[in-house]
Amino acid sequence: MSKNYVTCLKTLGRKPKALCFNQGKEFINEDLRNWCAEQGIEIQTTAPYSPAQNRIAEHMNRMLVELAHAMINAHELPEFLWELAIAHAAYLRNQAFTSPLGDHTPYKIWHNNKPNVAHLCKFGAPVWILHQGQAKQ
Q1: What are the tens digits of pLDDT across the range 24-41?
Q2: So where are the chain's domains?
Q3: Which of 25, 59, 106, 108 is a Cys-bridge partner for 94, taking CB atoms 3.0 to 4.6 Å apart?
């Protein structure tokens, strides 16, 4: 995951100097350490058993989980849509104003232009899938 994120950052013209993780072994392994060293990226870790040190990320995670629960429960949708609900909640949060950024959205800070939200639909709205190019039998 970290490698994909760094690759995405690089395509946007950004090069991170450091990545910060908690002490979880699922995030930090020898392969990641070697790769970060090759890229010139420092790995930083929080102190063990100290979620307060990572409170902003913990708060955001909790908020995204609560938003996803609300969206799934409001439409009585199945749990297998959980990952999509989380992704949708994160997308919405990045388009919305947040007090630390004043009159900007995270999207505007990141992309240096105002987000266009005309394409947004209510989560759980019915959709139709058009299959193109199916072979005739």
Answers
A1: 777 788 888 898 999 999
A2: 2-49, 53-111
A3: 106
